Amino acid sequence: MAADKRSTRLKTAYSLLDAYGSLSPDAILDHLDEKCTHQALPESLGMPPRSKEEFRGHAQGITSIFTTFAMVPQNVYEDEDNNAVVIHAIMDGQLNKPDIGQWKNECIMLLRFTPDGSKIIQIREFVDSAKAMEMRNKVKPKNFDSHGGSFLSTLGWVASTTVPVALAGAAVLFFTGRKDLLRLR
After folding, report:
1. In which element (H, E) is residue 79 found?
2. Which residue, of 22, 76, 94, 165, is most buried by count of CB atoms within 10 Å of its CB?
């Protein structure tokens, strides 16, 4: 088997995506630096940036409503100069509420890393506002809206069915300002 030639930051990003499937807040937060912040976008959702500990509380609420979950990357863009990764992912989970069942959507995650690429220091996640509100109205996980406990990468799990793949490219331009990064890795 060939050795994995991906950068440390890409390995960290893919490990984070895999950790979502564990439904373990600790496994997810293990990839985050102690000073990591997370924010769900667009800002019109009214979900403020959260610290790692606030993110933990939200993660516990969200993970408790799923029986299975997978974050499947569709496009991944790496910005070596800015130590960043942009991910367009499909989220596919089974909710533990029988009347809802499968929850499928997508998100765009903008990740920044520690200098060595081994930990994530910032997550900005574009989510589908309509799906986020649907989750809020149908399931309302504990700490879904609160500032004091938040894991909006899991909101990303429940967030988006209409974000076009082109948004991943737009996110690269928005996040980095560099057109030369619009290449798949």
Report:
1. strand 66-79
2. 76
Q: How many Å apart are CA 175 and CA 44, to the nearest integer? A: 18
DSSP string for 46-69: ----EEHHHHHHHHHHHHTTEEEE
Domains of the chain, with CATH numbers?
A: 8-181 (3.10.450.50)
Q: Name 99's Cβ contacts closer than 8 Å, sequence gap at least 6.
A: none
User: In this structure, what DSSP letter does residue 159 have?
Assistant: T
Pair 160, 127: CB distance under 8 Å: yes
pLDDT (tens digit, 9 = 90+) per residue, 93-111? 998 877 778 888 889 999 9
Query: What token pair was written down for 7?
Result: 């950068």
Helix, strand, or coil (residue 84): strand
What is the pTM for the complete model shown? 0.74
Alpha-carbon distances of 107 from 3, 5, 53, 111, rounded to whole Å? 29, 26, 22, 13
Is the bond leading into 42 cis (omega within 30 degrees of zero)?
A: yes
